[in-house]
């Protein structure tokens, strides 16, 4: 069932109520592997911790993993963060008496979730990023803090950069978050309490805390620093990794431009890449390839080349040698930066793959990604052209 934005608090209070008299984790968090999801679940777990609700958390990479899950008798509530809106949740998870709360910006919504005859699936009704929705929940619970605003902005920015939200909505939400910051008390920041993924506070003993931080990649010397210094170290490492990834995207993009590898056919442009081992290590993931595709679209649009009648969807195909598959991602080419066009390439990909007999092994949550096992990718490209020409 669709749950209106103004009543998110009511749904959360039901989760808290259902946790009463349980002896273990009563809440299960299934979290997609993307930035918005991580930001959203960071906000959500802080709300559960404030209510002393124990939870467990599982990162999920695809629908097969979700379908194979079993749940302990203690689980009363399940949150799906950026996964689940487009599938029949009740049937996929084989629910019994659990209630599921879906916070997912993917569309379209599966009608079995909208018209849930079992009364067990609650869809947080909004197309905003998941982190924006969990921040809205925090605000309704009077638990908004500066760190939660920051997390909401992180999730929002990820969706804007990935062209999943347009400039007008992005600017509107940025203004909302600016107003939220101004309205917060001067001490409305985060605390330094460290929690484990099952929702319980970690032991505060020196040895136990050092072991935990070591698992996060900190050296013994760094573990012995103050909490604020440790946070800075983790942030710096995250920024360094992000910069390395962005540099790899730009370097590969410039190489594609220099070698003039992009081909134009009637209804779309495409490029087919064979990545080096290093490029595959850094860029051989759907989200990174999508970022590369968007970078190439942005460059050509800013040069005044891919605009007006010259604008066309862009398909990026990369051979992943380690698995001997082709990853295929598709993006639109809007007239202006910040505009969003409905991306129909996912449907076209599926039809083209079916016509060529190539089964997709991609099991993630993005609709415009395919992973194909086939010897001749040119056959797929030819059939994709035929599908889009029909």
TrEMBL record:
It is found in: Nucleus. InterPro entries: CDC45. Transmembrane segments: none annotated. Its main location: nucleus. Signal peptide: none annotated. Keywords: Cell cycle, DNA replication, Nucleus. GO terms for molecular function: chromatin binding; DNA replication origin binding; single-stranded DNA binding. Belongs to the CDC45 family. PANTHER family: CDC45-RELATED PROTEIN, CELL DIVISION CONTROL PROTEIN 45 HOMOLOG. This is Uncharacterized protein.
């Amino acid at each position: 069932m669709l749950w209106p934005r103004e009543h998110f608090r009511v749904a959360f209070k039901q989760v808290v109520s259902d946790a009463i008299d349980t002896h273990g984790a009563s809440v299960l968090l299934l979290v997609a592997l993307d930035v918005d999801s991580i930001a959203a679940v960071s906000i959500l777990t802080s709300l559960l911790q404030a209510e002393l609700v124990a939870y467990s958390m599982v990162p999920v990479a695809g629908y097969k993993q979700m379908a194979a899950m079993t749940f302990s008798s203690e689980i009363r509530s399940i949150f799906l963060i950026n996964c689940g809106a487009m599938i029949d949740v009740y049937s996929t998870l084989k629910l019994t008496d659990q209630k599921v709360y879906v916070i997912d910006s993917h569309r379209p919504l599966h009608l079995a979730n909208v018209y849930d005859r079992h009364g067990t699936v609650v869809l947080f009704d909004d197309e905003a990023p998941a982190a924006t929705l969990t921040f809205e929940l925090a605000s309704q619970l009077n638990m908004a803090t500066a760190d939660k605003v920051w997390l909401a902005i992180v999730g929002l920015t990820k969706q804007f950069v990935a062209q999943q939200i347009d400039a007008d909505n992005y600017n509107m939400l940025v203004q909302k978050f600016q107003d939220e910051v101004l309205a917060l008390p001067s001490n409305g920041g985060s605390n330094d309490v460290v929690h484990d993924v099952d929702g319980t506070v970690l032991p505060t003993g020196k040895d136990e805390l050092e072991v935990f931080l070591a698992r996060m990649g900190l050296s013994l010397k760094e573990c012995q620093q103050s909490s604020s210094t440790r946070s800075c170290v983790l942030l710096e490492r995250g920024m360094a990794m992000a910069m390395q990834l962005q540099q790899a995207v730009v370097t590969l993009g410039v190489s594609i431009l220099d070698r003039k590898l992009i081909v134009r056919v009637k209804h779309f442009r495409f490029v087919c890449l064979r990545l080096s081992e290093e490029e595959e290590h850094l860029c051989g993931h759907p989200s990174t390839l999508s970022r590369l595709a968007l970078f190439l679209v942005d460059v050509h649009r800013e040069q005044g080349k891919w605009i007006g009648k010259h604008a066309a969807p862009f398909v990026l195909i990369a051979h992943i040698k380690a698995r001997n598959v082709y990853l295929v991602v598709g993006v639109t080419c809007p007239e202006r930066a910040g505009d969003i066009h409905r991306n129909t390439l996912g449907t076209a990909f599926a039809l083209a793959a079916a016509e060529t007999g190539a089964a997709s092994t991609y099991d993630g949550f993005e609709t415009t990604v395919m992973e194909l096992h086939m010897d001749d990718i040119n056959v797929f490209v030819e059939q994709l052209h035929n599908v889009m020409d029909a």
